[in-house]
Amino acid sequence: MTDRNESYVLDEQVGFLLRLAYQRHMALFMERMTGGLTPTQFSTLYRLREASEPLSQNALGRLVGMDGATTKGVVSRLLARDLIHVEKDGEDRRRYTLFITDTGCRLLDAVLPDVKGSSETTLAPLAPSEREQLLQLLKRLI
Question: Which positions fall inside the HTH marR-type domain (predicted)?
């Protein structure tokens, strides 16, 4: 009888390792976050602010990597906190566009040090050259 584990080692699987790294980073993010935002809410606000043109809910979801249902929930929570607002598109009345509010911009500015700090802490075990290499490799995977 052959050993079933000889060709598969869980601790050497990219998905498993990415999930563990993600869990560690999320714990650090939430520990540092003073503005009550989840990582997804932060990313959503950030993408809205950096957008060069108004974004539909679908376009925003694609930019942040969310499916439609998740995007709808995130948008609803941000609307409830007056961090974003929605307007009907001037050219296509069926379409709605999303904008970050002044309140959303102020909150984003306030929490940026928290977010940067969580990234720094996540990457702290790596040398600066390893950090850059990791980020470049992850970008190639996506």
Answer: 11-142
